[in-house]
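Treating backbone geometry as a discrete language has practical consequences that deserve illustration. In the encoding step, the backbone of a single protein was reduced to a row of integers, each denoting a local shape. The amino acid sequence and the backbone structure tokens for this protein are reproduced below.
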Amino acid sequence: MGESRRVPVRSQEDVWTFTQRNVPLWDILEFFPPDAVGPRVAGEAPWPYDVTPVTIETDLGFSFETDIQFGSWVFRPRSPNQPGMMRWCRERALEPGDALLFEKLGERRFRLSLERDAKAAP
């Protein structure tokens, strides 16, 4: 296993935020390439560098390409009907005590999987 980072699901409020809004990446932002951070909205002035997305491969068998929105520090939102962070969170049925595990597979490739709370495991 390569380098990894975890985003804990601490409360029912986190479950709601992750499934209805998005997953804040602030605490693990340094894990992703700096040029993966892009403008908050498409109409902003040109960015001082070329924004290059990352690929997230999920444990649910789908992957998505995304950048990180400046200021909100989340993967670019997508409808929960499209492959993306919100869809993954909803389909994984997150619970408090879980953690989202990001593993570095390559310079711009990451694997996303779920770690269930060890105390809740059968």
Observations:
- Strands lie at 4-8, 37-38, 54-58, 63-66, 68-69, 99-104, 109-115.
- The mean pLDDT is 90.
